[in-house]
Automatic annotation (TrEMBL):
Pfam families: DUF4277
Annotated ranges, domain DUF4277: 3-82
Positions of region (Disordered): 76-97
Protein name from the UniProt record: Transposase-like protein
Cross-referenced InterPro entries: DUF4277
Length: 97
């Protein structure tokens, strides 16, 4: 059983802020590897902060428990360490310095 909780209410709010679209416009993907866009990742991080702020280490577990796949169609394993800013393959850490 999934515990969607406040995410059901937060989804329209987050959608109205168009976070995903803004981030994707400002920071476009260099290549489309079939994963999440930067905007989708930031949107999930904002949702996590608003819903149940846990250490980023547990973001994948949070997404599984909270039903992110059901609400957003994003598999929780797409929110792993290598996709988050500062992760091994993201390239974001060095560009922000």
């Amino acid at each position: 059983m999934k515990f969607i909780g406040s995410l059901y209410l937060l989804k329209p709010f987050i959608n109205s802020l168009v976070i995903r679209e803004i981030v994707d416009r400002i920071v476009p993907m260099e290549r489309d590897d079939g994963g999440l866009s930067h905007g989708q990742m930031i949107e999930q991080l904002v949702l996590n902060r608003l819903d149940d702020p846990l250490p980023l280490l547990y973001l994948e577990d949070w997404a599984e428990i909270r039903g992110i796949r059901e609400l957003y169609g994003i598999p929780p394993n797409n929110l792993n360490d290598e996709r988050r800013p500062g992760g091994q393959n993201s390239g974001c850490g060095s560009s922000l310095r």
